[in-house]
Amino acid sequence: MTPIHYTIIPARPEAHLYRVTCTVADPDPSGQRFALPAWVPGSYMIRDFARHVVSIRAASRNRAVAIEKLDKHTWRAEPVAALLAVTCEVYAWDLSVRGAHLDARHAFFNGACVFLRVLGQETAPCELEIVRPGGVRYRNWRVATAMARKSAKPYGFGAYLASDYDELIDHPVEIGEFTLASFRAGGVPHDIVITGRHAADTRRLQRDLKRLCGHHMRFFGGPAPMKRYVFLVTAVGEGYGGLEHRASTALLCSREDLPREGEVGVSERYRTFLGLVSHEYFHTWNVKRIKPAAFVPYDLDRENYTALLWAFEGITSYYDDLALVRCGLIEKKDYLELLGRSITTHLRTPGRARQSLAESSFDAWIKYYRQDENSLNAIVSYYVKGSLVALCLDLLIRDKTRGRKSLDDLMRTLWRRHGLTGGGLEEDGIERLAEEVTGVKLARYFDDWLRSTRELPLKALLATSGVEMELRPAESGEDKGGKPARSKNAAGLAMLGIRVRAQGGDTGVTHVLEGGAAQEAGIAAGDVIVAVDGLRPGQAGLDPALAKRQPGESVTIHAFRRDEMMTFEVRLKRADADTCVLAESAGARQKLLERWLRPDTRRT
Ligand SMILES: [Zn+2]
Q: Which of 144, 323, 367, 455 has its CA 20 to 30 A from that of 86?
Protein backbone atom coordinates (compact mmCIF):
# COMPACT_ATOMS: atom_id res chain seq x y z
CA MET A 1 0.00 0.00 0.00
CA THR A 2 1.21 3.51 -0.79
CA PRO A 3 2.12 5.30 2.42
CA ILE A 4 -0.11 8.07 3.75
CA HIS A 5 1.91 11.21 4.24
CA TYR A 6 1.34 13.49 7.23
CA THR A 7 2.94 16.83 8.01
CA ILE A 8 2.54 18.60 11.35
CA ILE A 9 3.82 22.04 12.26
CA PRO A 10 3.23 23.88 15.54
CA ALA A 11 2.31 26.76 13.26
CA ARG A 12 1.02 29.38 15.70
CA PRO A 13 2.09 28.53 19.24
CA GLU A 14 0.67 31.82 20.59
CA ALA A 15 -2.77 30.84 19.26
CA HIS A 16 -2.29 27.14 20.24
CA LEU A 17 -2.79 26.05 16.64
CA TYR A 18 -1.17 23.15 14.83
CA ARG A 19 -1.36 22.90 11.06
CA VAL A 20 -1.68 19.29 10.00
CA THR A 21 -1.76 17.98 6.45
CA CYS A 22 -2.70 14.49 5.39
CA THR A 23 -1.80 13.56 1.81
CA VAL A 24 -3.30 10.50 0.13
CA ALA A 25 -1.77 9.15 -3.08
CA ASP A 26 -4.72 6.92 -4.02
CA PRO A 27 -7.89 8.54 -2.72
CA ASP A 28 -11.17 6.65 -2.91
CA PRO A 29 -12.54 7.35 -6.44
CA SER A 30 -16.04 7.79 -5.02
CA GLY A 31 -14.82 10.55 -2.64
CA GLN A 32 -12.25 9.96 0.09
CA ARG A 33 -13.57 10.00 3.64
CA PHE A 34 -11.47 11.12 6.63
CA ALA A 35 -12.22 10.90 10.35
CA LEU A 36 -10.75 11.89 13.69
CA PRO A 37 -11.04 9.43 16.59
CA ALA A 38 -13.82 9.94 19.12
CA TRP A 39 -11.52 8.70 21.91
CA VAL A 40 -7.92 7.86 22.64
CA PRO A 41 -7.10 4.25 23.56
CA GLY A 42 -6.34 3.92 27.26
CA SER A 43 -8.78 6.64 28.28
CA TYR A 44 -12.27 5.23 28.06
CA MET A 45 -14.41 8.25 27.38
CA ILE A 46 -15.81 9.82 24.23
CA ARG A 47 -13.82 13.02 23.76
CA ASP A 48 -14.73 13.94 20.16
CA PHE A 49 -11.35 15.39 19.21
CA ALA A 50 -12.93 16.77 16.01
CA ARG A 51 -14.36 19.60 18.10
CA HIS A 52 -10.89 21.17 18.12
CA VAL A 53 -10.62 21.26 14.33
CA VAL A 54 -10.88 24.97 13.61
CA SER A 55 -10.68 24.79 9.83
CA ILE A 56 -10.31 22.15 7.14
CA ARG A 57 -9.63 22.38 3.42
CA ALA A 58 -8.71 19.97 0.67
CA ALA A 59 -6.63 20.40 -2.47
CA SER A 60 -5.44 18.37 -5.43
CA ARG A 61 -2.93 19.49 -8.06
CA ASN A 62 -2.92 22.99 -6.56
CA ARG A 63 -6.65 23.26 -6.97
CA ALA A 64 -9.14 23.50 -4.13
CA VAL A 65 -11.33 20.44 -3.68
CA ALA A 66 -14.69 20.57 -1.94
CA ILE A 67 -14.85 18.75 1.41
CA GLU A 68 -18.13 18.19 3.24
CA LYS A 69 -18.85 17.08 6.77
CA LEU A 70 -20.81 13.83 7.11
CA ASP A 71 -21.12 13.56 10.89
CA LYS A 72 -19.45 14.94 14.02
CA HIS A 73 -16.02 13.62 13.08
CA THR A 74 -16.14 12.44 9.46
CA TRP A 75 -15.52 14.40 6.25
CA ARG A 76 -15.68 13.45 2.58
CA ALA A 77 -13.69 15.14 -0.18
CA GLU A 78 -15.04 15.48 -3.67
CA PRO A 79 -13.74 12.66 -5.95
CA VAL A 80 -10.34 13.39 -7.47
CA ALA A 81 -8.12 11.26 -9.69
CA ALA A 82 -4.80 12.48 -8.26
CA LEU A 83 -2.97 13.15 -4.99
CA LEU A 84 -5.38 14.58 -2.39
CA ALA A 85 -4.16 16.76 0.49
CA VAL A 86 -6.35 17.76 3.42
CA THR A 87 -5.12 20.45 5.79
CA CYS A 88 -6.58 21.15 9.22
CA GLU A 89 -5.89 23.77 11.83
CA VAL A 90 -6.21 22.07 15.21
CA TYR A 91 -6.60 23.99 18.45
CA ALA A 92 -4.47 22.49 21.25
CA TRP A 93 -4.85 23.75 24.78
CA ASP A 94 -5.38 20.60 26.82
CA LEU A 95 -2.42 19.90 29.07
CA SER A 96 -3.46 16.36 29.91
CA VAL A 97 -1.71 13.14 28.96
CA ARG A 98 -4.54 12.31 26.53
CA GLY A 99 -4.75 15.63 24.72
CA ALA A 100 -2.74 18.07 22.64
CA HIS A 101 -1.10 21.23 23.93
CA LEU A 102 0.87 24.03 22.32
CA ASP A 103 2.33 27.31 23.44
CA ALA A 104 5.59 29.18 22.96
CA ARG A 105 7.28 26.92 25.59
CA HIS A 106 6.55 23.48 24.14
CA ALA A 107 4.34 21.30 21.99
CA PHE A 108 2.78 17.98 22.96
CA PHE A 109 0.28 15.90 21.08
CA ASN A 110 -1.39 12.53 20.91
CA GLY A 111 -1.90 11.51 17.30
CA ALA A 112 -5.58 10.81 17.97
CA CYS A 113 -6.11 14.55 18.49
CA VAL A 114 -4.45 15.73 15.29
CA PHE A 115 -4.11 13.06 12.58
CA LEU A 116 -7.01 12.30 10.25
CA ARG A 117 -7.67 8.64 9.63
CA VAL A 118 -7.99 7.84 5.92
CA LEU A 119 -11.00 5.54 5.87
CA GLY A 120 -10.31 2.35 3.96
CA GLN A 121 -6.54 2.86 4.21
CA GLU A 122 -6.06 2.40 7.96
CA THR A 123 -3.50 -0.36 7.40
CA ALA A 124 -1.32 1.70 5.04
CA PRO A 125 2.11 2.72 6.39
CA CYS A 126 2.34 6.32 7.54
CA GLU A 127 5.16 8.83 7.11
CA LEU A 128 5.15 11.80 9.42
CA GLU A 129 7.08 14.99 8.80
CA ILE A 130 7.48 17.07 11.96
CA VAL A 131 8.34 20.65 11.01
CA ARG A 132 10.07 23.20 13.24
CA PRO A 133 8.02 26.38 13.72
CA GLY A 134 9.58 29.54 12.24
CA GLY A 135 11.44 32.02 14.49
CA VAL A 136 14.61 32.17 16.62
CA ARG A 137 12.58 31.36 19.69
CA TYR A 138 12.25 27.77 18.52
CA ARG A 139 15.76 27.10 17.26
CA ASN A 140 16.69 24.99 20.31
CA TRP A 141 13.55 22.88 20.21
CA ARG A 142 14.00 19.12 19.93
CA VAL A 143 11.60 16.25 19.30
CA ALA A 144 11.00 13.31 21.63
CA THR A 145 8.91 10.32 20.58
CA ALA A 146 9.21 6.55 20.38
CA MET A 147 8.15 6.64 16.73
CA ALA A 148 10.77 5.18 14.36
CA ARG A 149 12.90 7.77 12.58
CA LYS A 150 13.04 7.81 8.79
CA SER A 151 15.41 10.63 7.87
CA ALA A 152 15.09 12.64 11.11
CA LYS A 153 18.23 12.76 13.27
CA PRO A 154 17.87 11.56 16.87
CA TYR A 155 15.61 14.05 18.73
CA GLY A 156 15.41 16.03 15.49
CA PHE A 157 12.68 17.48 13.33
CA GLY A 158 12.11 15.65 10.05
CA ALA A 159 10.62 12.38 8.87
CA TYR A 160 9.29 9.57 11.08
CA LEU A 161 7.59 6.28 10.21
CA ALA A 162 4.69 4.20 11.54
CA SER A 163 3.54 0.88 10.12
CA ASP A 164 -0.14 1.88 10.14
CA TYR A 165 -2.59 4.44 11.53
CA ASP A 166 -2.96 2.55 14.82
CA GLU A 167 0.78 2.87 15.39
CA LEU A 168 0.87 6.50 14.20
CA ILE A 169 -1.48 7.55 16.98
CA ASP A 170 0.24 5.37 19.59
CA HIS A 171 3.43 7.44 19.76
CA PRO A 172 2.79 10.76 21.49
CA VAL A 173 5.27 13.51 20.64
CA GLU A 174 6.87 16.14 22.86
CA ILE A 175 8.67 19.09 21.25
CA GLY A 176 10.59 21.78 23.10
CA GLU A 177 13.67 22.40 25.25
CA PHE A 178 13.29 19.41 27.53
CA THR A 179 15.62 17.64 29.95
CA LEU A 180 16.84 14.34 28.55
CA ALA A 181 18.27 11.43 30.54
CA SER A 182 18.86 7.96 29.13
CA PHE A 183 19.56 4.46 30.38
CA ARG A 184 19.43 0.89 29.14
CA ALA A 185 17.33 -1.83 30.73
CA GLY A 186 17.23 -5.38 29.40
CA GLY A 187 19.35 -4.19 26.48
CA VAL A 188 16.66 -1.67 25.45
CA PRO A 189 17.46 2.08 25.33
CA HIS A 190 15.11 4.15 27.51
CA ASP A 191 14.75 7.94 27.55
CA ILE A 192 13.36 10.11 30.32
CA VAL A 193 12.18 13.40 28.83
CA ILE A 194 11.12 16.10 31.31
CA THR A 195 9.23 19.22 30.28
CA GLY A 196 8.45 22.07 32.65
CA ARG A 197 10.59 23.67 35.34
CA HIS A 198 12.01 21.19 37.78
CA ALA A 199 14.99 20.47 40.02
CA ALA A 200 15.03 16.70 39.55
CA ASP A 201 18.06 14.55 40.25
CA THR A 202 18.17 12.94 36.82
CA ARG A 203 20.93 10.48 37.77
CA ARG A 204 18.74 9.15 40.53
CA LEU A 205 15.81 8.84 38.12
CA GLN A 206 18.02 6.94 35.66
CA ARG A 207 19.18 4.57 38.38
CA ASP A 208 15.77 3.93 39.94
CA LEU A 209 13.86 3.59 36.66
CA LYS A 210 16.50 1.25 35.28
CA ARG A 211 15.98 -1.01 38.26
CA LEU A 212 12.20 -0.87 37.96
CA CYS A 213 12.07 -1.40 34.19
CA GLY A 214 14.53 -4.29 34.43
CA HIS A 215 12.28 -5.89 37.03
CA HIS A 216 9.16 -5.66 34.84
CA MET A 217 11.08 -7.09 31.86
CA ARG A 218 12.31 -10.08 33.86
CA PHE A 219 8.82 -10.57 35.27
CA PHE A 220 7.32 -11.24 31.84
CA GLY A 221 10.49 -12.88 30.54
CA GLY A 222 11.77 -13.25 27.02
CA PRO A 223 12.86 -10.48 24.72
CA ALA A 224 11.43 -7.03 25.44
CA PRO A 225 8.41 -6.20 23.28
CA MET A 226 9.79 -2.76 22.28
CA LYS A 227 13.00 -1.60 20.58
CA ARG A 228 13.18 1.54 22.68
CA TYR A 229 11.05 3.23 25.30
CA VAL A 230 10.36 6.88 26.14
CA PHE A 231 8.96 8.40 29.34
CA LEU A 232 7.45 11.78 28.38
CA VAL A 233 7.14 13.59 31.72
CA THR A 234 5.41 16.95 32.11
CA ALA A 235 6.16 18.53 35.49
CA VAL A 236 3.66 21.09 36.76
CA GLY A 237 2.68 22.63 40.11
CA GLU A 238 0.01 20.08 40.93
CA GLY A 239 -1.05 17.30 38.62
CA TYR A 240 -1.18 13.55 38.24
CA GLY A 241 -1.89 11.30 35.31
CA GLY A 242 -0.49 8.84 32.86
CA LEU A 243 -1.41 7.27 29.56
CA GLU A 244 0.17 4.08 28.28
CA HIS A 245 1.46 3.49 24.78
CA ARG A 246 3.25 0.61 23.05
CA ALA A 247 6.74 2.06 23.46
CA SER A 248 6.25 5.15 25.58
CA THR A 249 4.09 6.79 28.17
CA ALA A 250 2.94 10.34 28.76
CA LEU A 251 3.08 11.28 32.45
CA LEU A 252 1.87 14.38 34.24
CA CYS A 253 3.21 14.97 37.74
CA SER A 254 3.93 17.64 40.29
CA ARG A 255 7.52 18.88 40.09
CA GLU A 256 7.66 18.14 43.83
CA ASP A 257 7.12 14.45 43.05
CA LEU A 258 10.52 14.27 41.36
CA PRO A 259 13.50 13.54 43.63
CA ARG A 260 15.89 16.44 44.25
CA GLU A 261 19.64 16.32 44.27
CA GLY A 262 20.85 15.10 47.68
CA GLU A 263 17.45 13.70 48.70
CA VAL A 264 17.87 10.36 50.41
CA GLY A 265 15.25 7.67 50.78
CA VAL A 266 11.98 7.56 48.92
CA SER A 267 9.61 10.34 50.01
CA GLU A 268 5.87 9.81 49.85
CA ARG A 269 5.73 12.11 46.83
CA TYR A 270 8.50 10.32 44.96
CA ARG A 271 6.85 7.00 45.82
CA THR A 272 3.72 8.30 44.08
CA PHE A 273 5.77 9.13 40.99
CA LEU A 274 7.49 5.74 40.98
CA GLY A 275 4.09 4.04 41.31
CA LEU A 276 2.84 5.96 38.26
CA VAL A 277 5.93 5.06 36.23
CA SER A 278 5.56 1.42 37.26
CA HIS A 279 1.87 1.37 36.36
CA GLU A 280 2.28 2.77 32.85
CA TYR A 281 5.33 0.63 32.14
CA PHE A 282 3.48 -2.57 33.15
CA HIS A 283 0.81 -1.61 30.60
CA THR A 284 3.44 -2.09 27.87
CA TRP A 285 2.57 -5.76 28.33
CA ASN A 286 -0.85 -5.67 30.00
CA VAL A 287 -3.32 -3.83 27.71
CA LYS A 288 -0.98 -2.64 24.96
CA ARG A 289 -0.23 -6.23 23.91
CA ILE A 290 -2.35 -8.52 26.08
CA LYS A 291 -5.71 -6.93 25.18
CA PRO A 292 -9.39 -7.68 25.32
CA ALA A 293 -10.80 -9.00 22.02
CA ALA A 294 -13.09 -5.95 22.13
CA PHE A 295 -10.00 -3.79 21.39
CA VAL A 296 -8.72 -5.85 18.45
CA PRO A 297 -8.89 -3.66 16.53
CA TYR A 298 -9.99 -0.52 18.38
CA ASP A 299 -13.15 1.02 16.99
CA LEU A 300 -12.21 4.69 17.21
CA ASP A 301 -15.68 5.96 16.26
CA ARG A 302 -17.50 4.82 19.38
CA GLU A 303 -17.37 3.19 22.81
CA ASN A 304 -15.63 -0.22 22.91
CA TYR A 305 -17.36 -2.24 25.59
CA THR A 306 -15.59 -4.81 27.74
CA ALA A 307 -16.12 -6.11 31.28
CA LEU A 308 -12.37 -6.76 31.50
CA LEU A 309 -11.03 -3.32 32.41
CA TRP A 310 -10.73 -4.61 35.98
CA ALA A 311 -8.02 -6.97 34.70
CA PHE A 312 -6.19 -4.44 32.56
CA GLU A 313 -6.34 -1.56 35.03
CA GLY A 314 -6.84 -3.49 38.28
CA ILE A 315 -4.12 -6.10 37.79
CA THR A 316 -1.81 -3.33 36.55
CA SER A 317 -2.63 -1.31 39.68
CA TYR A 318 -1.85 -4.34 41.81
CA TYR A 319 1.56 -4.87 40.25
CA ASP A 320 2.55 -1.18 40.08
CA ASP A 321 3.28 -0.83 43.81
CA LEU A 322 4.11 -4.52 44.26
CA ALA A 323 6.94 -4.11 41.74
CA LEU A 324 8.39 -1.26 43.83
CA VAL A 325 8.84 -3.52 46.85
CA ARG A 326 9.89 -6.52 44.77
CA CYS A 327 12.73 -4.61 43.12
CA GLY A 328 13.77 -3.06 46.41
CA LEU A 329 12.88 0.57 45.76
CA ILE A 330 10.58 0.63 48.79
CA GLU A 331 10.45 -1.39 52.03
CA LYS A 332 7.89 -4.00 52.98
CA LYS A 333 6.31 -1.66 55.53
CA ASP A 334 5.90 1.02 52.84
CA TYR A 335 4.18 -1.47 50.60
CA LEU A 336 1.83 -2.55 53.37
CA GLU A 337 1.03 1.11 54.00
CA LEU A 338 0.15 1.63 50.31
CA LEU A 339 -2.00 -1.48 50.32
CA GLY A 340 -3.70 -0.35 53.55
CA ARG A 341 -4.55 2.93 51.85
CA SER A 342 -6.08 1.20 48.83
CA ILE A 343 -8.23 -0.93 51.10
CA THR A 344 -9.26 2.21 53.00
CA THR A 345 -10.24 3.97 49.77
CA HIS A 346 -12.33 0.97 48.80
CA LEU A 347 -14.06 0.71 52.17
CA ARG A 348 -14.93 4.40 52.04
CA THR A 349 -16.78 3.95 48.76
CA PRO A 350 -20.45 3.19 49.47
CA GLY A 351 -20.89 2.52 45.73
CA ARG A 352 -19.14 -0.85 46.21
CA ALA A 353 -22.51 -2.13 47.46
CA ARG A 354 -24.24 -0.94 44.28
CA GLN A 355 -22.00 -1.73 41.34
CA SER A 356 -20.02 -4.87 40.59
CA LEU A 357 -16.53 -4.77 39.16
CA ALA A 358 -17.69 -6.16 35.80
CA GLU A 359 -20.37 -3.45 35.61
CA SER A 360 -17.83 -0.80 36.54
CA SER A 361 -15.60 -1.91 33.65
CA PHE A 362 -18.44 -2.05 31.16
CA ASP A 363 -19.85 1.35 32.09
CA ALA A 364 -16.48 3.12 32.40
CA TRP A 365 -17.44 5.34 29.45
CA ILE A 366 -20.41 6.90 31.18
CA LYS A 367 -19.63 6.40 34.86
CA TYR A 368 -16.01 6.05 36.03
CA TYR A 369 -14.80 8.61 33.48
CA ARG A 370 -17.74 10.96 34.05
CA GLN A 371 -17.95 11.20 37.79
CA ASP A 372 -20.28 13.51 39.62
CA GLU A 373 -21.37 14.21 43.18
CA ASN A 374 -23.19 10.86 43.41
CA SER A 375 -20.41 8.66 42.01
CA LEU A 376 -19.07 7.68 45.42
CA ASN A 377 -22.50 6.23 46.26
CA ALA A 378 -23.15 4.62 42.90
CA ILE A 379 -19.95 3.23 41.46
CA VAL A 380 -16.86 1.26 42.41
CA SER A 381 -13.44 1.91 40.91
CA TYR A 382 -12.16 -0.84 38.63
CA TYR A 383 -8.68 0.42 39.49
CA VAL A 384 -9.02 0.16 43.26
CA LYS A 385 -11.35 -2.84 43.57
CA GLY A 386 -9.66 -4.38 40.53
CA SER A 387 -6.29 -4.21 42.30
CA LEU A 388 -7.80 -5.73 45.44
CA VAL A 389 -9.35 -8.58 43.44
CA ALA A 390 -5.92 -9.17 41.88
CA LEU A 391 -4.50 -9.26 45.43
CA CYS A 392 -7.19 -11.71 46.58
CA LEU A 393 -6.63 -13.88 43.53
CA ASP A 394 -2.87 -13.92 44.06
CA LEU A 395 -3.14 -14.78 47.76
CA LEU A 396 -5.84 -17.39 47.15
CA ILE A 397 -3.80 -19.15 44.46
CA ARG A 398 -0.69 -19.07 46.65
CA ASP A 399 -2.65 -20.54 49.55
CA LYS A 400 -4.48 -23.24 47.58
CA THR A 401 -1.34 -24.40 45.75
CA ARG A 402 0.91 -24.12 48.83
CA GLY A 403 2.95 -21.47 47.11
CA ARG A 404 3.62 -23.42 43.92
CA LYS A 405 1.56 -21.07 41.76
CA SER A 406 0.61 -17.43 41.87
CA LEU A 407 -0.92 -14.63 39.82
CA ASP A 408 2.58 -14.16 38.34
CA ASP A 409 2.17 -17.49 36.51
CA LEU A 410 -1.16 -16.36 35.08
CA MET A 411 0.36 -13.10 33.83
CA ARG A 412 3.26 -14.88 32.15
CA THR A 413 0.90 -17.32 30.44
CA LEU A 414 -1.31 -14.43 29.30
CA TRP A 415 1.79 -12.84 27.85
CA ARG A 416 2.82 -15.95 25.94
CA ARG A 417 -0.66 -16.84 24.67
CA HIS A 418 -2.10 -13.41 23.99
CA GLY A 419 0.66 -10.80 24.21
CA LEU A 420 3.15 -12.42 21.89
CA THR A 421 0.47 -13.60 19.47
CA GLY A 422 -1.72 -10.47 19.47
CA GLY A 423 -4.79 -12.68 19.91
CA GLY A 424 -7.38 -10.68 21.87
CA LEU A 425 -8.67 -12.02 25.15
CA GLU A 426 -12.32 -13.13 25.16
CA GLU A 427 -14.52 -11.84 27.97
CA ASP A 428 -14.15 -15.10 29.93
CA GLY A 429 -10.50 -15.54 28.93
CA ILE A 430 -8.85 -14.55 32.20
CA GLU A 431 -11.15 -16.77 34.25
CA ARG A 432 -10.61 -19.82 32.05
CA LEU A 433 -6.87 -19.34 31.88
CA ALA A 434 -6.56 -18.73 35.63
CA GLU A 435 -8.09 -22.15 36.36
CA GLU A 436 -6.01 -23.82 33.69
CA VAL A 437 -2.71 -22.33 34.84
CA THR A 438 -3.20 -22.85 38.57
CA GLY A 439 -5.40 -25.95 38.70
CA VAL A 440 -7.52 -24.17 41.33
CA LYS A 441 -11.31 -24.06 40.98
CA LEU A 442 -11.95 -20.35 40.88
CA ALA A 443 -15.43 -19.97 39.31
CA ARG A 444 -17.28 -19.13 42.51
CA TYR A 445 -14.64 -16.61 43.55
CA PHE A 446 -14.85 -14.85 40.21
CA ASP A 447 -18.66 -14.79 40.50
CA ASP A 448 -18.40 -13.19 43.92
CA TRP A 449 -15.59 -10.77 43.22
CA LEU A 450 -16.42 -9.69 39.67
CA ARG A 451 -20.15 -10.06 39.31
CA SER A 452 -21.52 -9.44 42.79
CA THR A 453 -21.13 -6.68 45.35
CA ARG A 454 -20.22 -9.02 48.21
CA GLU A 455 -17.31 -7.83 50.36
CA LEU A 456 -13.88 -9.19 49.46
CA PRO A 457 -12.38 -11.63 52.02
CA LEU A 458 -9.32 -9.41 52.44
CA LYS A 459 -8.60 -10.09 56.10
CA ALA A 460 -8.71 -13.88 55.75
CA LEU A 461 -6.63 -13.95 52.58
CA LEU A 462 -4.01 -11.51 53.86
CA ALA A 463 -3.63 -13.70 56.95
CA THR A 464 -2.68 -16.65 54.73
CA SER A 465 0.40 -14.74 53.58
CA GLY A 466 1.42 -13.42 56.96
CA VAL A 467 -0.30 -10.04 57.05
CA GLU A 468 -2.62 -8.90 59.81
CA MET A 469 -5.38 -6.52 58.84
CA GLU A 470 -6.96 -4.15 61.37
CA LEU A 471 -9.77 -1.70 60.80
CA ARG A 472 -10.20 1.45 62.88
CA PRO A 473 -12.21 4.67 62.54
CA ALA A 474 -10.60 7.63 60.79
CA GLU A 475 -8.86 10.09 63.12
CA SER A 476 -9.43 13.14 60.94
CA GLY A 477 -10.44 14.19 57.49
CA GLU A 478 -6.78 13.84 56.47
CA ASP A 479 -6.45 10.22 57.64
CA LYS A 480 -5.96 8.14 54.48
CA GLY A 481 -5.27 4.90 56.31
CA GLY A 482 -2.29 2.58 56.12
CA LYS A 483 -0.86 3.79 59.43
CA PRO A 484 -1.75 2.92 63.03
CA ALA A 485 -3.88 5.40 64.98
CA ARG A 486 -1.87 8.22 66.53
CA SER A 487 -3.77 8.23 69.79
CA LYS A 488 -4.38 4.93 71.57
CA ASN A 489 -7.98 5.46 72.63
CA ALA A 490 -9.18 7.08 69.45
CA ALA A 491 -12.87 6.34 69.27
CA GLY A 492 -12.85 8.28 66.04
CA LEU A 493 -14.78 11.28 64.97
CA ALA A 494 -18.49 11.48 65.21
CA MET A 495 -19.32 11.50 61.53
CA LEU A 496 -21.41 13.74 59.36
CA GLY A 497 -20.96 11.49 56.35
CA ILE A 498 -19.86 14.07 53.83
CA ARG A 499 -16.82 14.95 51.72
CA VAL A 500 -15.89 18.59 51.63
CA ARG A 501 -13.68 21.16 49.98
CA ALA A 502 -12.66 24.58 51.27
CA GLN A 503 -14.71 27.21 49.50
CA GLY A 504 -13.67 30.76 50.24
CA GLY A 505 -13.53 30.82 54.04
CA ASP A 506 -16.30 28.22 54.31
CA THR A 507 -16.81 24.53 53.65
CA GLY A 508 -18.39 23.31 50.43
CA VAL A 509 -20.02 19.89 50.44
CA THR A 510 -18.79 17.84 47.47
CA HIS A 511 -20.36 14.47 48.31
CA VAL A 512 -23.04 13.25 50.68
CA LEU A 513 -22.48 9.63 51.60
CA GLU A 514 -25.24 7.06 51.34
CA GLY A 515 -26.79 6.31 54.73
CA GLY A 516 -24.78 8.99 56.55
CA ALA A 517 -25.98 11.49 59.13
CA ALA A 518 -25.85 14.41 56.69
CA GLN A 519 -28.00 12.63 54.12
CA GLU A 520 -30.61 11.79 56.75
CA ALA A 521 -30.70 15.44 57.80
CA GLY A 522 -31.16 16.65 54.22
CA ILE A 523 -27.73 18.16 53.50
CA ALA A 524 -26.91 18.01 49.78
CA ALA A 525 -23.85 18.21 47.56
CA GLY A 526 -23.19 21.83 46.65
CA ASP A 527 -24.34 23.17 50.03
CA VAL A 528 -21.93 25.66 51.60
CA ILE A 529 -21.68 25.13 55.34
CA VAL A 530 -21.23 28.41 57.17
CA ALA A 531 -21.94 27.50 60.80
CA VAL A 532 -21.94 24.54 63.19
CA ASP A 533 -24.06 25.22 66.28
CA GLY A 534 -24.02 28.92 65.45
CA LEU A 535 -20.23 29.21 65.07
CA ARG A 536 -18.37 29.66 61.84
CA PRO A 537 -15.79 26.88 61.37
CA GLY A 538 -13.94 29.09 58.88
CA GLN A 539 -10.65 28.03 57.33
CA ALA A 540 -10.02 25.33 59.97
CA GLY A 541 -12.85 23.29 58.44
CA LEU A 542 -15.25 20.93 60.16
CA ASP A 543 -12.79 18.61 61.94
CA PRO A 544 -12.13 20.90 64.94
CA ALA A 545 -15.80 21.84 65.13
CA LEU A 546 -16.77 18.17 65.46
CA ALA A 547 -13.74 16.89 67.38
CA LYS A 548 -15.33 16.79 70.83
CA ARG A 549 -18.73 15.53 69.70
CA GLN A 550 -20.09 12.13 70.53
CA PRO A 551 -22.06 9.86 68.25
CA GLY A 552 -25.78 10.36 68.91
CA GLU A 553 -25.35 14.07 69.71
CA SER A 554 -27.22 16.57 67.56
CA VAL A 555 -25.69 19.63 65.93
CA THR A 556 -27.30 22.49 64.06
CA ILE A 557 -25.77 23.22 60.71
CA HIS A 558 -26.37 26.36 58.69
CA ALA A 559 -25.66 26.16 55.00
CA PHE A 560 -26.39 28.08 51.84
CA ARG A 561 -28.15 26.35 48.96
CA ARG A 562 -29.22 28.33 45.89
CA ASP A 563 -28.11 31.34 47.95
CA GLU A 564 -30.80 30.60 50.53
CA MET A 565 -29.80 29.97 54.13
CA MET A 566 -30.99 26.58 55.33
CA THR A 567 -30.91 25.00 58.76
CA PHE A 568 -30.28 21.31 59.38
CA GLU A 569 -30.51 19.35 62.61
CA VAL A 570 -27.98 16.55 62.27
CA ARG A 571 -27.80 13.59 64.60
CA LEU A 572 -24.15 12.51 64.40
CA LYS A 573 -23.28 8.90 63.73
CA ARG A 574 -20.35 6.84 64.92
CA ALA A 575 -17.49 6.84 62.45
CA ASP A 576 -17.23 3.56 60.59
CA ALA A 577 -14.17 1.38 61.13
CA ASP A 578 -13.17 1.93 57.50
CA THR A 579 -9.51 2.77 57.94
CA CYS A 580 -7.21 -0.12 57.21
CA VAL A 581 -3.84 -0.81 58.83
CA LEU A 582 -1.72 -3.78 57.77
CA ALA A 583 1.18 -5.31 59.65
CA GLU A 584 3.50 -8.26 59.25
CA SER A 585 2.37 -11.07 61.52
CA ALA A 586 5.00 -12.70 63.66
CA GLY A 587 5.87 -16.33 63.28
CA ALA A 588 5.67 -19.08 60.75
CA ARG A 589 3.98 -17.16 57.97
CA GLN A 590 6.85 -14.75 57.51
CA LYS A 591 8.37 -17.00 54.86
CA LEU A 592 5.18 -16.80 52.83
CA LEU A 593 5.30 -13.04 53.06
CA GLU A 594 8.89 -13.07 51.81
CA ARG A 595 7.94 -15.30 48.91
CA TRP A 596 5.08 -13.00 47.95
CA LEU A 597 6.87 -9.67 48.27
CA ARG A 598 10.41 -10.68 47.35
CA PRO A 599 10.35 -13.46 44.77
CA ASP A 600 13.61 -13.79 42.92
CA THR A 601 12.52 -12.69 39.45
CA ARG A 602 16.10 -12.80 38.22
CA ARG A 603 15.68 -16.48 37.53
CA THR A 604 12.34 -16.26 35.73
ZN1 LIG B 1 -3.67 2.22 33.73
A: 144
